[in-house]
Design goal:
The complex is a heterodimer of chains A (247) and B (194). Chain A has 247 residues and is an alpha+beta fold. Chain A contains 7 helices and 10 strands. Chain A is elongated, with a radius of gyration of 24 Å. In chain A, 40% of the residues are buried. Chain B is mainly alpha-helical and 194 residues long. Chain B has 2 domains: 74 residues, RNA polymerase sigma factor, region 2, helix turn helix motif (Rna Polymerase Sigma Factor, Chain: A, Orthogonal Bundle); 86 residues, Winged helix-like DNA-binding domain superfamily/Winged helix DNA-binding domain (Arc Repressor Mutant, subunit A). Chain B has 10 helices and 2 strands, in the order βααααααααααβ. In chain B, α4 crosses α8. The radius of gyration of chain B is 21 Å and the shape is globular. The chains are: A alpha+beta (247), B mainly alpha (194). Chains A and B meet through β1, α1, α3, α4 and α6 of A and β1, α1, α2, α4 and α7 of B.
Chain lengths: 247, 194
């Protein structure tokens, strides 16, 4: 029978040690020792080639802008109150910074390519809509029911959950307005906005695999409210904006 | 008219973000990407064997790392810490399709029989993992793929050295059973060689 080795650490050889070297985690004598070992060890040289290949594969499959958008999206998902967002609040600025990185890059991606259903960032579960509050003192997720301060800049982040098209509309006592419509790309919508309403408003995001007739949607919303946005094949996500705390 | 005013362009707002410095935070994420994302992506791609799933998993791993950033920052080796999270995440994903995973060794055997393709070492390890228990799987990856010593594995996992050795022997026993079915002409090292 052939004796087959599954591998394992060798004398002086360790894939992890090579990775630590590549990540800049080794210093001083330990680093010097490993570099000397590497110079004469074909096994570790092979590991180093594998690491270089992994770097090329990452750059091709998941560039930094996509990576940052995906990480931010996942952080925003957990920011929901049911999961204890206060404990994670310190990470919101990072999430937002990452989404802003993506904001600069994703529109260009959308122009240059026609995303397939299986491309881009995917999230398990349904689509989500998160509103960030940008003030002079910082940026954070706006809690459900929390009043929007006067003059605050609001930024919406969509997680489309593989849906291809999105329309985001604002509905209040004065009517309906389209905030955004187009291909559904995970991350922040291109524009921030200042809601100046006095009472309350509903932000409605409709996500579908087919292009959305935004004018028709706005008409239905104006006549029938949020429920009128629900049609077969579309998913609807809403969030409320209020100017002051409820009773 | 609806009461809102659009403020074009998000980028213009970026310098106003606080309370921490967004450029520093972006720098942190870029640094994590440059140092560790390739290794994490490689681990996810090896285990999940699906590039899209590997991309998702990589982003999920870094989101987890950022949620537990204090723990990450204090880790003796960020590389080891992240790869462990990645391995754990991907093994959990694979367990959802456990039956198919268990058949991997058989599929490799067919490939070898029909086309003379010898399985690559890590491909074989991946297939054999499907026959082991969760804790054995994680420790086997650290030993056979990350090439950590048993002492290093004990330190990284917080388990005793005898426990690590016991788990590795259990993995080898499970692997031996799988090989007896799929690759009767291949033998593994004896358990007392560990």
């Amino acid at each position: 029978m052939t004796s087959r080795s599954l591998g394992g650490p060798g004398p002086g050889c360790s894939a992890t040690r090579m990775r630590q070297l590549a990540a800049g985690e080794l210093e001083g004598a330990e680093r010097v020792r490993l570099l000397e070992h590497l110079a004469g060890c074909s096994r570790c040289q092979g590991t180093r080639r594998e690491i270089a290949e992994e770097e090329r594969a990452l750059a091709a499959a998941l560039p930094f802008e996509d990576f940052a958008a995906g990480v931010a999206e996942r952080l925003a998902q957990v920011e929901r109150p049911a999961r204890g967002w206060r404990a994670l609040r310190r990470w919101v600025p990072l999430a937002l910074a990452a989404t802003l990185v993506a904001a600069a890059a994703l529109p260009m991606v959308a122009r240059l390519t026609t995303p397939r259903r299986d491309e881009g960032v995917r999230i398990k579960g349904g689509p989500t809509l998160t509103v960030y509050l940008q003030q002079a003192g910082g940026s954070r997720v706006l809690e459900p029911g929390e009043p929007v301060p006067a003059g605050a800049r609001l930024r919406l982040v969509v997680a489309p959950a593989q849906r291809k098209h999105v329309a985001v509309l604002l509905l209040d006592s004065d009517g309906v307005a389209v905030l955004h419509a187009g291909e559904a790309v995970a991350g922040p919508l291109p524009d921030a906005f200042d809601w100046t309403g006095a009472a309350e408003a509903t932000v409605v995001a409709v996500l579908a695999d087919q292009p959305i007739d935004v004018a028709a949607l706005a008409g239905r919303l104006a006549k029938g409210g949020v429920e009128a946005a629900r049609t077969p094949g579309a998913e609807v996500v809403t969030l409320q904006l209020v100017r002051r705390y409820g009773p | 008219m609806p009461r809102f005013a659009v403020i074009p362009g998000g980028q213009a707002l970026a310098p106003r973000l606080g309370p921490s410095d967004p450029s520093r935070e972006r720098g942190l994420l870029a640094d994590l990407y440059a140092r560790h994302a390739a290794a994490v992506f490689g681990r996810c791609r090896w285990l999940l064997r699906d590039e899209e799933e590997a991309k998702d998993a990589t982003q999920e791993v870094f989101a987890k790392a950022l949620r537990a950033f204090g723990e990450f920052r204090e880790a003796a080796s960020p590389t080891t810490w992240l790869l462990r999270i990645a391995t754990h995440h991907c093994l959990n994903e694979l367990r959802a399709g456990r039956a198919r995973w268990r058949e991997e060794a058989g599929r490799l055997a067919e490939l070898r029989r029909d086309e003379g393709v010898e399985p690559e070492r890590r491909e074989l390890v991946r297939a054999l993992l499907g026959r082991a228990d969760p804790e054995e799987q994680e420790i086997a990856v650290m030993y056979y793929v990350d090439e950590l010593t048993q002492v290093e594995i004990a330190a990284a996992t917080g388990r005793s050295l005898p426990t690590v050795r016991k788990r590795l022997r259990a993995f080898l026993a499970a692997a031996r059973g799988a090989l007896a079915e799929a690759f009767p002409n291949i033998s593994l090292p004896e358990e007392d060689e560990l």
